[in-house]
Amino acid sequence: xxxxxxxxxxxxxxxxDSAGTHGYHVGEPAEVRMRKHAQIRGYxxxxxxxxxxxxxxxxxxxxxxxxxxxxxxxxxxxxxxxxYASKIRRMTDFCEKMKENEIPDPYYGGDEGFExxxxxxxxxxxxxxERLKAQ
Length: 135
Hints:
41% of the residues lie in helices and 4% in strands. By secondary structure, the chain is mainly alpha-helical.
């Protein structure tokens, strides 16, 4: 998504960040195999893991995108007042070509899992970018 934002000259309009629902890997870069597969496709993954902060993240961001059903439930639970429910969406809601309900966790699989995740994310990010540009 960061590359699409740069390619479209929207760095001053779109802020994109990544956060998890647990703090297990706070401060760490993306998993080494994900960085390897991303680099093969020309992507840089510069972010460091951080835990989502509902009090600051929910009001700040227009969208809170999650990768899978478990994350969706966890993030919705962090919004106990349901004030931000309309912002919480699945990343796959923006897929245009692939028919996926969630982005699988490739951690316990082989290289093909990381490639599939990137395939899904490329589709979802392209769809999201088109919707953002239309707005």
